[in-house]
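Need the bound structure for S-adenosyl-L-homocysteine, inputs here:
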Amino acid sequence: MKDDGKARPTFPARLPVAPRSVAVRAPQARVSQPARALVQPLARPAVKPAVVLRPTAPGGLGMDSSAVRAAMVRKIQAQGVSHAGVLAALQAVERHRFVDSALVNQAYEDTSLPIGLGQTISKPGVVARMIELLCAGHGGKLGRVLEIGTGCGYQAAVLAQVAHEVYSIERLRGLHEKARENLRAFRVSNLHLLFGDGMLGYPRGAPYAAIIAAAGGNDIPQAWIDQLAVGGRLVAPAVTAAGKQNLVVVDKTATGTVRTELEAVFFVPLKSGIA
Ligand code: SAH
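Answer from helper R.:
Posting the output first, comments after.
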């Protein structure tokens, strides 16, 4: 993959005007200050998050989840993810809060799980891999990030740990509402949930330092490239010439784009329109 070693630009942490749109409903689930929750001692020292992102109300696993989450993070580290900020974000976000109660015991396995409406929460290893790709060559936090495919909101919560501002868009109203519900108690002020067709991107927030998609189409929509900042990076699953779905990285430069195809992946399809 091309890596010119240049740090990507940062962008204003906030839009000058509060987002408002006819086609895309701006979020109510904006959660203010990151929860000032306790940092749990880890079973073995792994990557220590600045804060544990968890709601004030108890729920989910009937146990302290930080140790089992630390084990998940170690496995992901062993798969080759090394970015400290990404690992800390995975340690911080309580994934079991984003899955149905019947699946809570599988929340820290490196597997995708059903979240309703035929969709899945992404594998944490793939979430980590993609966010590490977004952060590559970037010292501090990312600027403004657009996520296509909020789903249950897990990846959005992880992104909110490594970026100054995150816009996440979902085309299925039921999942948009579910993500809002899941995230309500976390109080993450830099995450904005949008209901709309992410194939169009979200022009009001452009340009983005990074764009990430959790659903794969035949192509990368031109709107995403247009809304990416010069120096920005996009990571998305897309069908390649071989007819398989692979991770695709697009770097936008002053003179054009550089596309890199990486490993095969299995994401739900990117669809147009809302439902
Ligand atoms: N990041 C999510 C993964 C959800 S699965 C998580 O952590 O749970 C991918 C999601 O992409 C699905 O919810 C699907 O409805 C959504 N999706 C597919 N096409 C879309 C589009 N055009 N715009 C917005 N969301 C889309």
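Comments: Residues 66-264 form a domain with the Rossmann fold fold (CATH 3.40.50.150). Confidence is low (pLDDT under 50) at residues 1-7, 9-46.
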